[in-house]
Amino acid sequence: MNPNLQNLSVAAVVLTLPASYSGALNEANGKLPVSHSLYEQSPEAQGFPLKLLVFGQLQRINVASPKWDTGEEVAKEFHALVERWKQETFALSSLTKIYAHPAYQRIMAMGAAGIPFVLKELQKDQGHWFYALKFMAGRNVSAGMDNFEDAKAAWLEWGYKHNYI
Amino acid sequence: MRDCSWILQSPDDFGNIRPDNFTCSSDRTSHLPCWGYNCIAWAAGKTDKWWWPVEGDPCAFWPIPIDPIDPVTLEQFIKAFESEGFSVCRNSRFENGFEKVAIYADSNHEPTHAARLLSSGLWTSKMGRGEDIEHKTLHVVEGKRYGTAAAFLKRPNPSCQKPSQLKKLVSHLKGFLRT
Description:
The structure holds 2 protein chains of 2 kinds. Chain A has 7 helices and 2 strands. Chain A has helices spanning 22-27, 71-88, 95-100, 102-109, 115-124, 130-137, 148-161; strands at 12-16, 51-55. Chain A has a two-stranded antiparallel sheet with strand order 1-2. Chain A is globular, with a radius of gyration of 15 Å. Chain B is an alpha+beta fold. In chain B, 22% of the residues lie in helices and 21% in strands. Chain B is built from 4 helices and 7 strands, in the order αβααββββββα. Chain B has helices spanning 5-8, 39-43, 74-82, 158-178; strands at residues 22-24, 87-89, 98-105, 111-117, 123-126, 132-135, 148-156. In chain B, strands 1-6-5-4-3-7-2 form a 7-stranded antiparallel beta sheet. In chain B, a hairpin with a 5-residue loop joins strand 4 and strand 5. Chain B starts with a helix and ends with a helix. The model of chain B has no long low-confidence stretch (mean pLDDT 92). Classes of the chains: A mainly alpha, B alpha+beta. The interface between A and B is medium-sized, with 29 and 37 residues.
C-alpha cells in the first residue's frame, strides 16, 4: 500500500459482501476497523468478492483507530483471532468456509494495520494467508504463483520493501 | 502427529462417529505448506495440493478452469472428478474393479467434503487439515460439518488392472509352454 495512504481517514465506508459472507459480517457488526482498509485499485478488477466503497473526503490527518489504540492491542486481538480461526476451521476442507470464517474476515478487515502480523504469521506458519494478504494489501503480490515457498518469499520481500516487517 | 481423538470430542460436528466405526490412518498435515492436502485431493488419490476452486490463491489447486460465477457447486466438483477419470454413478455400493468417491454437501447443496471407497469396503476421508481416517459407512462423517453424501462417482480401479495384466502374462506363458 502507498505509505501516503496509511494515515488517511475516511468519512464513511460501506462494506458489501456476497450473501455467503453475511454471517461473518453480522458477527463482526459494528466492529470492522474499516478506516485501515483502503484500496489503491478496484478490488473488483482483481476478482475480489469483497468490495470496499469509500465515500466522502479523504483528509490528511492522523487518526488512530478508536478500537486499536496501540500495537499491543492489535497484536492481542490478532493472535486471539488466529487461534479461534485455526481451532474452529480445523476439520474443514472448504476454503470457502475457511476464508468466510468470522475471525478470518475480521483479520482481513484490519487492512494495512494487520499486515505486519499476518506476515509474521506467514513466516512461522505454513497456513493459508495469501488470500487475506491480497485483500489487506489491495494487491496480489503472489499472482500467478502456485508454489507456497515462492508466494511466501514474494510477500515477505514486499513486506520488507514497504516497511511492514 | 496422529491423534484423532479431536473428532470424537466434536459431537456437534460429527454426531455419528464412535470409537468402533472409524480408525485413524495417517498423521495430520496442519504443519505442511498450505496444510498439505485436503479431502477432495485425497478422494482423487492426490496428496500434494489442497484442492478447492479459489482463483489466484497459491494455496489452492483446482484441476479444471474455475467457474467465475459459481465455482463451489456440486456440478463443478463433479466436473473436477470427471477430469480425473471418474464418472457419475447411482450409488455408493462397492463394485469390483471400480474406485468410488462420494461428494458431501451441506443444506445449501454446497460441497463440503469427499470420501473414497477402498477395496477393503471401508471409506477413507481426510479430515480437514487433520488426519486421514477409515470409516465403515458414509454416514459416519455425516452431520453438521460435512452435511450428507450427495453425489457418487466411480472410475476403473488402477490396482484392479494388475490382475488382468497378470492373467495376460499367464495366458502368454501357457501359450508358450504349449508350443
